[in-house]
Design brief:
single chain; 209 residues; alpha/beta; 3-stranded mixed sheet; two-stranded antiparallel ribbon; elongated
């Protein structure tokens, strides 16, 4: 199963979390406590947590470390499903068909990133054509962000605009348009009193629009 495969991978890479130089800490005490609250609220509301490390040091408050943890039975109403987690908590929601999964994604705010796993070409095409997100990585996570030759940014609730390379220059710059009127121009023909020439020019501009 997916849970078993994830557990095997985590135990191989991180047999323990305390005093492990390869395992990072949560950025601050406030965010460490926020993650504990998200997990605690989910469990209290009926979800089940599965800690993936092989040792008992699943929580290291002094080091602000939490073990990789899967959350089963989470529901869309839970805070852990409504906030950006930024921590080692992974809610898993099962689905029976791809239609069901796509409908779940499309019923919510546009995500900043979408990750699809699988080698079936039709599966990939449906994910790309039937969802809207800031960016997509297939068969991995996060790496669309590292592509300097692609724009990175959100859409809708996940953000506006994009950066990287030329896109970043445009996103963080303000273009100042300047128009200089020529000494010879048609503006006098558009001023009152209005006559036949004005009517002809107005009709021409309406057709252009």
């Amino acid at each position: 199963s997916l849970v078993a495969a994830l557990g095997k991978a985590v135990r191989k890479n991180y047999p323990k979390i305390s005093d492990n130089p390869d395992y990072t800490s949560i950025v601050s005490q406030r965010h460490f406590e926020r993650l504990q609250v998200l997990l605690g609220q989910a469990v209290q509301a009926g979800a089940r947590e599965i800690v993936l490390t092989g040792e008992g040091d699943n929580l290291s408050p002094k080091q602000r470390r939490m073990a990789p943890t899967i959350v089963l039975g989470a529901t869309p109403e839970m805070a852990i499903m409504q906030e950006e987690i930024f921590g080692p908590l992974l809610p898993i929601l099962p689905y029976d068909t791809l239609d069901e999964a796509l409908a779940f994604v499309n019923a919510r705010e546009r995500p900043l990133a979408l990750y699809g796993f699988g080698d079936d070409a039709r599966f990939r095409e449906r994910i790309l054509s039937e969802t809207i997100s800031g960016g997509v990585t297939l068969n991995d996570c996060l790496l669309h962000y590292a592509q300097e030759e692609q724009p990175f940014g959100g859409v809708g609730a996940s953000g506006i605009g994009a950066y990287h390379g030329e896109w970043g220059f445009r996103a963080f710059s303000k273009e100042k348009p300047v128009f200089v009127q020529s000494r010879l121009n048609a503006i006098p023909l558009l001023l009152p009193p209005f006559g036949k020439m004005f009517e002809r020019m107005a009709g021409f501009m309406r057709r252009m629009i």
